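Input set for joint prediction.
Command: fold jointly, output tokens.
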Amino acid sequence: MQLDPKEVEEVCKTLYIRAVKLLPPDIKRGFERLMAAETDATGRAVLGTMVENIAVAEKRNNLLCQDTGIPIYNVVIGKNVEFDGAAMKAAIRRGCERATTEHPLRSSVVHPLTRKNEQTSCGVGVPIINVDFDSRDETVEIEMIPKGSGSENGSFLQMLIPADGVKAIKRFVIDRVIDCGGRVCPPTIVGVGIGGTSDLCMHIAKVAATRPLGSTCSDAEGARIEAELSEAVNELGIGPPGLGGRSTSFRVHVEVAATHITMNPVAVNIQCHSARRANAIITPGGIDFR
Amino acid sequence: MTHYTLETPVTEAQVRALKIGDTVTLEKTLFGVRDANLMAMFDNGRKTIFDMHGHAVVHTAPNVRKMPVTNECPSGYEAVCVGTTTSQRMERFTRPLMEREGVRIIIGKGGMGQGTLDAFRDIGGAYLAVIGGAAALQTTWIESIEEVDMDDLNPESIWRFRINGFGPLLVTMDSHGGSTYERIQGDAKSRRDAILASIGASE
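tokens >
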């Protein structure tokens, strides 16, 4: 299969617009699960408003949240795919720009020092493009994540040492969730990265925060901590959106990476209740948006 | 717990009557402010064309569409999606907004800190919580964008919205020292040690 940059551009434009309007089915099911378990009256009322908002956005073809986020594109390229990598990256950027100017969407991206907004959702290093490879035949998958800033500001890294142990990792997660309170738009997905280098640790925390609900960490120890922390954070009483209740998080997600004998890093990256993502699968048969 | 329908501008007495747990629906006019325009006003000496005395501000930067100027669209901007951003970043601007511009009500999400509570007590103000992220719903409470100041900062301009039944909003910080956020943070901290013990993570 030959990957056509023009097609990639169109797909990336469509993906940004779909992502800000349609909440993935696993997150909708997550709301149902929280509603069933919520005992606090304010918590129940607030979850009801959030569910109503999802319906209003669908009915009016409007955005779920005003925050169009920092655009992230995750590209996974299968085998027997011919592509021009530089042209593909340029096409992703053009698709992102066109979604912003043609829909139009709010450009939420500025230069970090001058704070100048180019009104394109693009800038130095943005959109963020992650490229990976897998073994699916003649298949390219593109995932678009408009990462909201309220929850992205709930990002933390600590280079713990081996003697601090797993205990300190758990304490770090619980304490950061308490610190964030309602500012990160609970109910959240708390993404936790354990291990790696500092940058890999934060990257896998983002992977964890943006993983579908219902998925579990592929590492057995990671999965065990994930289950334990998921129960624990909902005992804090922070609730949705920090006004009290059980529904502080849909789930804590953990990702792990090997680390150095002297290191014990932990990172937290939070995803808000508007946990938006959109995917497209490109094959010789066409484009499947999901 | 009382429900109030308030038409802006409001008086000091009206806003001092609000207590945490009350609900409010706002009518008539609402201003949108946030990071860049507050920095412009209070750090860089820019003056707004708007008179905000007795008014409510919401922490927002909306999605808008450029339109021809008509009666329905007097500012030349149509509201596409108007939501609420996290308020904590605007903490140091509450007192100057109230003292210099006369603002009485702040609408946001996630709550604010002690400086804001002190300003509410000293000057008379309240914080009303909107459900952050429920922007599609909130947009249905916006009738039009009437006028825009500091257009060069788009989307972080100062927006004057015409509103219709903006709410219900929950009073979560009042002029009597009440803060729902402080209570919930305190509760969470008091539960912390038992929760850590339950997952084998005690200090």
